[in-house]
């Protein structure tokens, strides 16, 4: 424990620092996310008639593909982010550098222009990658060991911080961006990240000493070999894209499709490498086989869940009534609904697991995952109803989206926190510090599938694709349930 004296809800003071930093980082992330697709389609044929112009006038299909690839990159880069903390800068410094890069990214987005947009987005993804997994690792550092009884509670408080930021973001960044000016909105996201950085630097003395050390520093030879490899790939990519651009064949798909494919290949090969690693004991290998079930399920889950900022956001903008009690509100506000449900339902779920544990028994991780998959599937089956109702141009009641988000959040609470903890518990010792990065790769894989579907011409807002995704999720839930004994067996002593 890093701090003596004052505590934060009975937790080390450092938790307050990490809570506030991650709250502001998520504020900037979800604020920008709420605007992203609307900004991309603004001024084009897919925008709502009469909506604010000044965007990049893309089609909804292109915007959804870009959005999905962007999210995929944010979570993919969490892995190298963890590596940098482990081997180069240590977690604290990596978070500061990441925060600066995120802020710079939002500031870049604040400047109009297509090139600025892509550079800004890349910077935000890079910065988030450096920040996201490491800040969670630092939460873990505040406690003495896995045995500290406050650890799970600490992570719950931290998850609330994430959602306070996620809740406020659409209301502030979304409103400014959607109702005043897109770029002013992005600038306000930069201000949020700036406040988070300030908080982090001021509170830095409360963090665990472990957070400032580099656990396994890179040797000079290793560094040179990485630099050589990196440079080689950079040259290969530069030559390849030089030719594509030079011959005039470049279109956005030349960037989107290779990145999305990488986003599928990398997660699969990382899991395969861990599974085949000869250094693992056979008990560890079995656990990895069990983990693959959870990983695949999570990929399908986030595939659907992350369309909140594209498919659901588009539906909120164009097909949902935007007045309550005669008061008009910007459609980005719907993006606050999921974090709101998280804050409302997280205590209910915590109480429910406890009550179940006392009376019958707490459902296992496997059962929770099965429930989550069925829930996310049901959410889309429900969503198809207002989708159909609005096909003649009627605006549906906001209650529909509130309900869809409620069902999704119930799924999220069965999968997301549980997933984080089962990831750390099933991790082979050798990969302990990298495993959270592996968990986030499930998001990458899910989002890349969506992106590829969109570039291939599938209509992500069409009833066909929506019900196919919903069916897949329910089937995945069913498969987990039917194989629950097998999966639990693979998990060994982990529950
Ligand atoms: N809403 C959570 C967060 O932003 C979980 C997102 C995720 O893991 N895909 O951290």
UniProtKB/TrEMBL annotation:
Belongs to the major facilitator superfamily. Proton-dependent oligopeptide transporter (POT/PTR) (TC 2.A.17) family. Pfam families: PTR2 (PF00854). GO terms for biological process: tripeptide transmembrane transport. Its main location: membrane. It comes from the Bacteria. InterPro entries: Dipep/tripep_permease, MFS_trans_sf, MFS_Transporters, POT_fam, PTR2_symporter_CS. One of its GO terms (molecular function) is dipeptide transmembrane transporter activity. NCBIfam families: yjdL_sub1_fam (TIGR00924). The chain crosses the membrane at residues 27-44, 56-78, 90-109, 115-135, 156-176, 182-202, 231-250, 256-274, 286-305, 340-357, 369-388, 400-423, 435-454, 460-482. It comes from Streptomyces benahoarensis. The keyword Cell membrane applies. It is found in: Cell membrane; Membrane. This is MFS transporter. Coiled coil: none annotated. Keywords: Cell membrane, Membrane, Transmembrane, Transmembrane helix, Transport. It is a multi-pass membrane protein. GO terms for cellular component: plasma membrane.
